[in-house]
Amino acid sequence: MEKLSMAAALFCALVLAALAAAAGGEAAVVEHTFVVHEMNQTHLCNTTKIYVVNGQLPGPTIDVTDGDTVVVHVVNRLPHGLTIHWHGVRQIMSCWSDGAGFVTECPIPPGGEHVYRFNVTGQVGTLWWHAHVTCLRATVAGAFIIRPKAGKYPFPTPAKDVPIIIGEWWELDLVELDRRMHDGNFDDNPLSATINGKLGDLSNCSGKPEESFVLDVVRGETYLLRIVNTALFSEYYFKVAGHTFTVVGADGYYLTPYKTDMVSVAPGEAIDVLMAADAPPAHYHMVALANQPPEPDPQIPGFVSRGLVRYAGSSRSNNGLPVPTPLMPSQHNTMPSYYFHSNLTGLAHPDRHRVPMHVDERLFFALGLGSICRGTNKTCERGRSPETIVVATMNNVSFRHPTNASLLERYYDGRTSGLYTEDLPDHPPHPYNYTDRALIPPGPMEKALEPTFKATKLRRFRYNTSVEIIFQSTALLQSDSNPMHLHGYDFFVLATGLGNYNPKTDPDKFNYHNPQLRNTVQVPRTGWAAVRFVTDNPGMWYLHCHFEFHIIMGMATAFIVENGPTPETSLPPPPPEFKRCGSNGLTN
User: Where is it found, in Gene Ontology cellular component terms (predicted)?
Assistant: First the structure.
């Protein structure tokens, strides 16, 4: 990769600062210190070791204004390495600060420190941050709020905004969970859902209900709920009894206001909703319920957390009346998610957010499962045989994550031999009926499609390339949805659909007028999603499903975006605070 001088890097920084200043408003530098450490917490009659930032669960909220610069000093007091990813932040010309472990940097070693520095420009709404090594994001995570300049929203200013962090409570140590999944054991499940770290009163220890998250409201006021799904395993339905929502944003961009009584939020997504406190003063339950496909395992337990909306002036006992609980969909009914996501559209975008109408590169990614033989065996029995390890694939390639090098660092230095290749297929090697439910259980057709392999295959794009991706969820050995997240970019979600994508008729459904801009698209169960973006941000950008088990199983890749023709369209050198990888796969 062509390197830039430090003078060019400074020029890029000055250009970015000038752009931020020209956009209006006085930009600030917002600084945080994150100390990551172990802590014991007791739930369900058991004390569990968890991993947290600054003793908080969820972690601290980063609250900035469009145009600000963020500086986070991370101190790692864990006995193993980690990175912090700023989920959804565009990281324009700052790929070095993306925080994707072994993609943009090696992990911060035990006892080590690292400084992340980046600008936030052109995004407004809710994003989030989380650990990006092993399963630690189950507890090492928090909200990242970007406020508009001068506090001007395209809707009435809410009385208060409240992060609603939906997660999971794991009794199993998260590092051990990660080790088991890397060994091919995916039988573990969380014990409960959480809302802002609380299990809720549906969980109990020896008959004593767990503590619930409580949202205190005043009748007549409107509240902005910033709903983020940090869970490892599940999409969640969220409702509040007796109340409705107006969806106004997602993933750091405004949406056309959409009224609903339920929000569906997949892992990696952030949804902004307005909730009017217009019910009679009383107590009302809020519920977060995980949804899982009924196949292949309908016995997956339901994960649920219940919180409380409490009106000012209502009695502590709710006047002796039962607290209303919202009627939730079946945990195995995935259609409400499909309809929710399909009904969202973007608020009219400025010129710089117009959908690219010309397409330079078209990719079709089939998302499914497969298997590799255990050990050094070249042949083995298929069909969920004990001789195999089940893996996840994109176009029948299961991504082999590096374990001792940073893809970005090696790419920048021109030392890529033996680390990766740039031949990720643009389409599956053998087209088939991707959504045939007969492929879910092992059988003759499934066994023929199951064999795959592990490899670190990437895809390279020239600067300013218009890219269209069709993500196709398949029924191969599973029927999961797939929340696909691309680092460093937002893409236009042109359409989603059920069944197999039809290249002749489905483009007629594309929304070119007001599509959503998202960093994570929920690809429906046995369905598809079409997205489009322009490669205007050089660097090494991770693309992956946001179900943790799919990441570990290999449903991932990385996109290389080349430098543009000028210094301001080229990735600057690593900043002074960037720490390079050592021989042990940790930063020096």
Answer: apoplast
